[in-house]
Design a protein that fits this description.
- The complex is a heterodimer of chains A (about 525) and B (about 425).
- Chain A contains 25 helices and nine strands.
- Chain A is mainly α and about 525 residues long.
- Chain A starts with a helix and ends with a strand.
- Chain B is an alpha/beta fold and about 425 residues long.
- In chain B, strand 2 and strand 3 form a beta hairpin.
- Chain B contains twelve helices and 17 strands.
- Classes of the chains: A mainly alpha (about 525), B alpha/beta (about 425).
- The interface between A and B is large, with 79 and 68 residues.
Chain lengths: ~525, ~425
């Protein structure tokens, strides 16, 4: 308990720095600058000069992919090209955050995270309804602590209540929900303490079982079958009942039955609390209070990973035992990550868990807006180029190039070519309702990132072939049958979000006019390119 | 009685399996591994979810922790399996069992990383899986991908995407997208590839990042893979119905097919195949579930060993089968068993290993290692040694750090000799 106090004390200090005047919150841009100061210091210590800012078109594409899940439409690219003044990045970020694309993108990421699978209607629970709830939460800017309360302390029927489907996914089972809370809301591996005290951390068995006991009064009405054949389940909280677990120290009963003992709710590493009628309310209140060292940090850490490809902390288990998770790794970059984690978590909880503000702070930082290419001053020899790239990325001196997720790739191919696959018409209703109900992207491009399987699909799959044909047809309709510079330029704008360079134009005109080539071959080359397939 | 039956089944199986089959093409292949190595390929069967060691290969007859399954004798004197593995019991003279595996990872994700990479996950560095290491060590630059996985698995980590697996999502359609469409010439593909390589080169120049090269190399490998025989589908049910049946095709078509395809890939030059049988996370109703899973595993693994043997491939092919951990000796209130990593088991075959033995032992309850603890790094060191790769070898990570292939693991001498 005293250790937790140390951590929350440190958090409070950082938090105080962010507050201007009496309880007023600093602008998100002020926090972005504080973030950049820490990074600048780390770069200086590592004698790295940070990369220049990315140009407007590069930033436009990057922000669209990371905030809205797909590449920008041609019209947006043309607008940025024709505007004489520079792009207002702040305005773009606001526009994107307010778009339904962004709500879809983040709802999909969160739903998959909470469910550990692609959301679908499983009958016993409805993942898509949970996704719908998360979509609305993003659009309505519901604070994350309220989202956590909805997800963990609610109840109801699977076909009515979106959040109840999280409880139902884990069968309203106390152990499974304790593991879910610890992993997905605290970033800890408490579930290892289910059977024995955690071998590597300070977690004890009583921490796990105490957490599980908060869910002991949940009851699930197993799938109710309607006359029409559809199913639903109900989860609700009773007013009595306690968690019973096997007692290894007890005496077996007369009939040889395993001895059991009662476990009462107790927060991990903490004490028993005064319990509300709905015990889960008590748990959520503990989880989401600003002094809780796990809740904000965990959300910040995994949100960061969506922009920079890596969590800020792999696990927060050590948090209760040490002042900062960074201390377990002495490298400068790990220390930097610990500092960023503390800073962003303090601001996130001070803001009342304002999710869009957190995204604004990250995307508004110079670190996020840097070029992927190193600074001109940082010219290493060719031999150590890879080592240098790795170091620069870890110190956030340049933007890390990341492969697109299958969803980003699917939506970006659709954006670049208008193609959504042969199944598209049949599934149109479903697809437009909630983007895509099941895993079309994974089906076409494989769930994993940059892998041989995806390369084969891009290289020779029917899907990309169809998309390339459709892009060619689109340019023919716009600019006529005979391939020319306009055709090529449109393809570059729609796929890469930029105009071709003169030598690229020449190469592609040659390919389009080649005896064994054509416009689809140009589209194919663009869709297969490293530039199209990465956030950069 | 059941052992006798199993032996008879095994005899039938090896006869059926050897009729009318092509000779092994090993002689024509070139491999980059140490010529002294016994194994040229590895088939890694991952029992996802963590099977109970007690209910599979380390029964505890008479102990309170044993549960309802009986133990049966195997062809290894003094070593028993659970009653639901009669076929494996019958080929146990060709198996080696480690009964003293131990680890500290009791979470599925973390333990799975450990079992695949030999390292517990850390935030700063992603370690390559065993398959990726073998791909990296493979100098053969042919059409066949060096590393194939049925379903997603751990990737190449810091080795880079080039050494990642070719993932087969659908066992009935293992290689979609390989054949060029009718009328599409190789010449046209070559023209496309040249244009693509030019684009990537310019992107690489602009960003000065190694990532552009990764893409080009992957596209080139994908282009070679199109021409590979190794991953193409074929119809087992009609072509080799008896063999398919012996692999347990009637019990679990998917697992039987993946076992058969693994054998065929190994014949065609694939160096590491991962396949998996999931569903072992039996927190409730453990015994019914284990019994249901034992059927396909018993049939598939025993048939694979026999089939490889009858084709003369077993001595060159290392087969290893394990989950990410074992399960509690205690049976919980739901008649289930929970995660347990203090002691668990692993079954191996082929690859020139010293088979027909059990290495190490758990205590009378199956709760702790009694004799000769074997860690996951030890297991990895053993697998690498068997495959002709020095486990003490170091790679350099992109940021210049030297990392050993195994995390201090020591080869299990009883197995490798």
């Amino acid at each position: 308990l005293s250790k937790e106090k140390t951590v929350s004390g440190a958090l409070a200090v950082v938090g105080a720095l962010l507050v201007i005047g009496a309880g007023e919150l600093a602008d998100s841009i002020t926090v972005s600058r504080q973030l950049d100061e820490r990074i600048a210091q780390a770069c200086q210590e590592a004698t790295l000069s940070p990369a220049s800012p990315a140009d407007d078109l590069t930033f436009l594409r990057r922000a669209w992919l990371d905030l809205a899940g797909r590449t920008p439409p041609v019209a947006e690219v043309r607008k940025a090209l024709t505007n004489s003044s520079t792009l207002s990045r702040e305005k773009l970020i606001d526009q994107l955050l307010a778009s339904p694309d962004a709500a879809k993108h983040w709802a999909r990421l969160w739903a998959e995270y909470y469910l550990d699978e692609r959301p679908f209607d499983a009958g016993v629970y409805n993942g898509r309804l949970l996704q719908r709830y998360l979509f609305e939460a993003f659009q309505n800017e519901t604070p994350y602590d309220a989202v956590a309360r909805d997800l963990l302390a609610s109840g109801g029927a699977s076909d009515v209540s979106g959040p109840a489907n999280l409880l139902l996914k884990y069968e309203a089972n106390p152990q499974r929900l304790a593991a879910t809370v610890s992993k997905k809301f605290m970033g800890c591996t408490l579930q290892c303490a289910e059977c024995h005290d955690h071998p590597h951390t300070h977690w004890k068995q009583q921490d796990f079982w105490g957490l599980a006991a908060f869910f002991a009064r949940l009851r699930r009405m197993n799938p109710v079958e309607e006359p029409e054949g559809d199913q639903f389940s109900v989860v609700l909280e009773r007013q009595r009942g306690e968690l019973k677990v096997a007692d290894p120290d007890g005496e077996p009963g007369e009939d040889g039955a395993q001895p059991m003992k009662t476990v009462y709710p107790r927060t991990p590493g903490g004490a028993t609390l005064d319990l509300a009628d709905n015990r889960r309310e008590t748990l959520v209140a503990w989880l989401t209070r600003p002094e809780n060292p796990y809740f904000a940090r965990h959300f910040v850490s995994r949100t960061w990973a969506e922009f920079f490809g890596e969590d800020l902390a792999a696990s927060l288990d050590d948090l209760g035992a040490q002042p900062s998770p960074s201390l377990s790794d002495k490298t400068a970059s790990a220390d930097l990550k610990g500092q960023i984690l503390d800073l962003l978590a303090a601001d996130f909880s001070a803001s009342g868990y304002d999710v869009k503000r957190l995204l604004r702070v990250i995307v508004g930082s110079e670190a996020y807006q840097r070029a992927a290419a190193p600074s001109p001053g940082s010219a290493g020899s060719r031999d150590d180029a890879a080592a240098r790239e790795s170091l620069e990325v870890r110190c956030l001196a340049r933007f890390p190039i990341r492969p697109l997720t299958a969803d980003q790739l699917y939506l970006s191919v659709a954006q670049a070519t208008g193609f959504r696959g042969d199944d598209y018409d049949r599934q149109l209703a479903e697809v437009t309702q909630e983007d895509f109900s099941y895993d079309l992207p994974g089906q076409y491009f494989g769930a994993e990132g940059l892998m041989l399987t995806r390369s084969v699909a891009l290289l020779n799959g029917d899907y990309v072939r169809g998309a390339a044909e459709m892009a060619a047809e689109a340019t023919r309709r716009l600019y006529g049958q005979s391939p020319g510079a306009q055709h090529i330029e449109w393809m570059f704008l729609s796929a890469l979000g930029r105009r071709p360079s003169p030598d690229e134009m020449e190469t592609m005109l040659n390919l389009a006019g080649h005896r064994e080539g054509g416009l689809p071959d140009v589209a194919w080359a663009l869709l297969n390119s490293a530039e199209f397939n990465t956030v950069h | 009685m059941s052992t006798l039956l199993a032996r008879r089944r095994f005899l039938l199986l090896s006869l059926g399996g050897s009729i009318g089959l092509a000779l092994s093409p090993w002689g024509r292949r070139v491999f980059g591994a140490d010529p002294a190595a016994k194994a040229k390929a590895c088939i890694f069967i991952y029992l996802e979810g963590g099977p109970s060691h007690i209910d599979t290969f380390d029964p505890k007859p008479g102990a309170a922790t044993n549960g309802p399954f009986e133990a049966v004798d195997t062809k290894i004197p003094g070593v028993q399996f659970s009653q639901h593995f009669p076929k494996l019991a019958g080929v146990a003279d060709k198996l080696a069992v480690i009964r003293s595996l131990t680890s500290k990872e009791g979470d599925h994700d973390r333990a799975s990383v450990l079992v695949h990479t030999g390292y517990s996950p850390v935030g700063v560095l992603e370690y390559p899986s065993l398959g990726a290491i073998i791909a990296r060590e493979s100098t053969a630059d042919g059409e066949a991908p060096p590393f194939v996985s049925f379903g997603a698995t751990n990737g190449p980590g810091y080795l880079g995407p080039e050494f990642g697996p070719y993932v087969i999502e659908d066992v009935n359609n293992p290689a979609p997208n390989l054949a060029l469409p009718e009328g599409f010439s190789e010449g046209r593909m070559a023209v496309r590839m040249k244009a693509l390589e030019g684009l990537n080169e310019r992107f690489g120049d602009r960003t000065r990042s190694a990532k552009a090269n990764d893409f080009t190399r992957l596209s080139q490998r994908a282009n070679r893979l199109r021409q590979s025989e190794a991953v193409k589908a074929y119809d087992f049910a009609s072509e080799e119905a008896d063999l398919w049946r012996s692999y347990g095709g009637e019990i679990d078509d998917g697992f039987a097919r993946s076992c058969m395809m693994a054998r065929r890939m190994v014949e065609n030059g694939v160096r590491f195949v991962e396949l998996r049988l999931g569903g072992w996370d039996t927190h409730a109703d453990n015994f019914n579930q284990v019994q249901a899973l034992a059927g396909p595993l018993d049939a598939g693994l025993s048939a694979l060993v026999a089939d490889l043997d009858s084709r003369g491939l077993l001595s060159q092919t290392l087969v290893v089968c394990l989950g990410e951990f074992g399960r509690t000796p205690q049976i919980n209130g739901d008649n289930g068993r929970d995660h347990w990593s203090d002691v668990f088991s692993c079954v191996m075959a082929g690859g020139g290993l010293a088979v027909g033995q059990a290495v190490g032992a758990s205590d009378a309850e199956g709760a702790q290692v009694k004799d000769r603890p074997v860690t996951i790094p030890d297991l990895h060191a053993t697998l690498l040694t068997t495959l002709g790769v020095d486990p003490a070898k170091q790679y350099t990570t992109p940021d210049g750090r030297p990392i050993r292939l195994t995390n201090g693991g020591k080869t299990v001498k009883e197995l490798v000799g």
